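I'll show a typical protein example:
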Amino acid sequence: MRRSLCAVALLALACLLVRSARVGLAGDYVDPISKVTAQDEALYAHSAIRAARQGGWLTPMFMGRYGLYKPPLLMWVSGLSVRILGVSRLALRLPVALLASLSVGLVFLWAAELRSWQAGACAAVLLVSNHLWHVLAGMSMTDGLLAAFYTAALFCLFSDPWLESKSALWGFAGSVAAAILTKSLAGVLPLGVLALYWLAGPRRQRPSFSRACLAAGLALALAAPWFAYQLWAHGRWFWAEHIGVEILGFGAGAPPQTSQENQALFYLMRMALVDPVLAAVALTALPRFIMEVRKWSAAPVLLLCWLASLAAAIFAWQYRNISYLLPMAPALAILATVYGPLFSKRRAPWMLALVGVAFVAKVAAPAASWGISFHRGTVQADAPLLSEYCQRARGNELILVGMDDDLYASTLPLAKLRYCLVGASLAGGRYGMNFGDMGIILTAAQFDGLAQWEPVFRQRLREWGLDSGEPIGTLILAGSPEELARTIGAHPGSDFLLPEQYRGAVEAAALASHQVVEAGGNHFFLLSREARPRGAPPGWSCCL
């Protein structure tokens, strides 16, 4: 079985690595229905690159400020990969792809043990060809890691429902701890599955109460040191961002949504549209699955607890995000192949061939919401412009007007980067920290008088436990195009990348201090006539 696990995992890894090497950072849609891009990948990649090159592994940083929105496990594994292999999109994504591929092997073993190796192979192919899995397991994002750790934890419980062996106990506890260090509160979900299984599972095939408590205690103890350290070292920031914004704000609140559909319709539609094959075969398996659950057998009850816990978490968490469906894909693949009438031992070889044909059909339609793509490129229209600018190796700071790049520029070896939004008003409140009070967000007038304001904001940042002026002015808010033009005139040494819509408002005012360079993609550069040499070549590739 170990050889089978390795073979399946290697094949799954090959599929993911081809994509990981060819698609730019933040270069695909997380939600192909609403066209939501993968901005978070650039954010996590920035933190990983910074840790690999500058240290500070315990506390993630983003553009000079603490990045305590998520725990650091993704930064650790991606940063370690970068430290060993150098900065590249493949190095950043390799750890997630590797762990996700190993979980595909576990899904194969799960289905093969309950039914047949052909059913296991079908489950693996169904999972690998799932659009969400193909995209998110091949990106440097927390979702692929979380799904992998969920699967590993529950496989330990499946293989030893009593958690009697050391390997099962520590495997379960370690996987849950890793899930918590990946996505905080969401990582606790396997403990909910364990609790539900302890209540609902057959008495002779479930862990004792003390063993279940021991597994939960070990998991929490393994994950706790990082949280304790942050509360001790950066307590005010950690409490405000991680607890206040991420958990209480986006989880328990009613944050702005990317879609206006109700909760149930949002997830049901996307489950069907991103993988109609998996959704259909899982539906055909429901009658037999319900019958097996009624027999009170360990395996179907555990799978039911897995699916029920995921569904409850998805509907309880107020913010809607298609990536929350990803951990459900392995469970649905097991459900479909173990309990589906189409995957009986007699029919399994034919179904394996049909599942393979479905995989080929998805590859042949990469633009479809259910398709899988191995094409080279990116959905970020600004990425080639920014990579070309990076290759100029200018020492001037670059100010991006707008955030159309989804933070892609933050991953490049630029001398200094700022963003500017025109006509926007960003407040802290429940869904964001008060960065304006810290000086991380500045008005255009404050930025134009930065020398006067910088000592004030440095002191405020020190009060938050950050003794650095690096994040000051990361984001600039200009009230109008005319105010943007005044800011450009006040900063003759800065370079700017602007959308075409602002050309009329800023070009005349900028000609004395800047050179207009056409960039394509409905953008243009204003390059300072005071070109500053970078001093050293870029520290890594400009094409991520």
Summary: The first strand starts at residue 29 and ends at 31. The chain has a mean pLDDT of 90. The chain has two domains: 2-21+46-253+261-364, 383-528. Residues 2-21+46-253+261-364 form one domain.
